[in-house]
Amino acid sequence: MKKIYNRIRTFFNVIESKIAFYPSLLAFVGFNLAFIMVYFEKGGISKKILENFPQLMLEDGDTALTIISACIGGLISMMVFSFSMVMLLLSQASSNFSPRLLPGLISDKKNQVILGTYLASILYMIFTLFSIEPEDKKYSLPGLSIIIGILLTIICLAAFIYFIHNMSQSIQISNILDNIFEKSKERLDYIINKEKEIDIKNNLHFPGHTNWNHYTTNKSGYFQNISLQNVINFCKKYDVHIYIAIPKGFFVLQHASFIYSDKKLDDDMRKELFSNFNFSRGELVEDNYILAFKQITEIAVKAMSPGINDPGTCINAVDYLTELFALRIQKSDSGVIVSEGETRIKIAIVPFADLLYNVMASLRTYCKHDPIIVQKMVWMLSYLKDREVFSEDYTKAIENELKILLSEAKTAFDSTVDTEYIKDFSKKI
Fold first, then answer.
1. DSSP assignment string, 284-307
2. Count of alpha carbons within 13 angstroms of residue 15, beta-carbon side
3. Are 126 and 90 in contact (CB under 8 A)?
4. What is the pTM of this model?
5. pLDDT tens-digit readout, 61-91
6. What integer best gives the mean pLDDT of the chain?
7. 406 CB contacts (<8 Å, ≥6 apart)?
8. Where are the transmembrane segments (predicted)?
């Protein structure tokens, strides 16, 4: 039962990130609400309202048809405008910042819910329209259904105002950076707390996997999720150790070695094991904190391109990278999963030194000509060097990157004044 629940949750997490998920769900609700109201209207609910609150009822069918038709036309216009705004946001974010931001922006639940509210209201009023005849009098009109349709229109107007506000906020780079940071921080905090709970420093032993049996996937895609508890139960059930050779969030090629085991697995066992892994064609920060480093680095690099030339955004991006690295240095590079005192699973991860190099290599290449940005990167590395780290190897990697940065900055600056200033600045901090 738990295995089925984990698979359903994984499936839901995938489809929830699609832009059409909430609009489709709410449209279904609106469609069904119209038929539910038909049932209540047949029960005479509008007649009871007419007896107690006659001022709420419309006089004739023509007036009702005119009002409902006007509401439908207005909502369709608002929905078209809103969808156009979403497409504009995605296009602008892709061209100005990074195409890698699109999955996160598309999965914004607020915009999805607003668009879904439009669709639900339109479908509700279209099907309500079928139950109104032009010659209907006050006592025979579906009064409550019409009132609900008008209320839904008012709700959509309020949602439209909020939608404009949300869109104006979403396109601001400060909010984009903050959103990426908060999602990745939440993920990193969760991992770090888990490692503290199991005392990871004393549970790093895992047998070597050099001569183990290796198995490949039947399809390619990004390694997005894993039902970890199911895999742990699998290892206990068959008394096997598993090494996952591709880090989470990376692209897995078809027929490439993905899983190693110390015991040979038959076809049924392989199917059972691989059913707990989820692959997709997209990436989300919620599933892989490494993606946050990639996205923020790409924003910084794009900001320093000649076509955009926005060093302020680059400085903001480096600030967020500093905070993320300050969290990452508290996490181990082991990838060992400890359950009930046993270490049966190990997942390949991106080592801190490689992660730092990948970020700094891009920043050095595109930002080393700007002394202000170089100063900011020197400050970031000096700050990280003085923090408490999980391993002394992290400090050595930071010192090495600082040395490379200062060496390349000397040859990149056109002015000796800038070179001397950076040299003096590095000595002071």
1. -TTT-THHHHHHHHHHHHHHTSTT
2. 10
3. no
4. 0.75
5. 677 788 888 889 999 998 888 888 778 777 7
6. 81
7. 378, 422, 423, 426
8. 20-40, 64-90, 111-132, 144-164
Measure the CA–CA gap between 321 and 317, rounded to whole angstroms: 6
d(CA 34, CA 124): 5
Q: Running DSSP on this structure, what letter comes out for residue 424?
A: H
Element (DSSP H or E) covering residue 242? strand 242-244
The DSSP output letter for 219 is: S
- Gap between the Cα atoms of 15 and 18, Å rounded: 5
Match 């490692």 to its residue by tokens.
Answer: 195
Per-residue pLDDT tens over the stretch 349-397: 888 999 999 999 999 888 888 888 888 999 999 999 888 888 888 999 9
The pLDDT of residue 2: 46
Model confidence at 201, in pLDDT bands (50, 70, 90)? Answer: low
**pLDDT above 90: residue 224:** no
Contact 223, 242 (CB under 8 A): no
347 — phi, psi (to 5°)?
A: -115, 130
Contact 165, 300 (CB under 8 A): no
Is residue 67 within 8 A of residue 58, CB to CB? The reply is yes
For the stretch 258-277, pLDDT in tens is 888 988 888 888 888 888 88
What phi, psi does 280 have (nearest 5°)?
-145, 175
Residue type, 205: H
Tokens 């003085």, located at residue:
386
Q: What is the pLDDT of residue 361?
A: 92
Q: Which CATH superfamily is domain 195-280 in?
A: Pyrimidine nucleoside phosphorylase-like, C-terminal domain (3.90.1170.30)
Determine the Cα–Cα distance for residues 69 and 240; give it in Å rounded to an integer: 66
- Domain limits, the chain: 2-171, 178-191+289-331+350-428, 195-280
**Cα torsion angle, 332, 377, 364, 427, sign:** negative
C-alpha–C-alpha distance, residues 368 and 300, integer Å: 12
Query: Tokens 């994984």 label which residue?
Result: 10
Specify the 3-state DSSP secondary structure of 18: coil
Side-chain-facing half-sphere of 216: CA atoms under 13 Å: 8
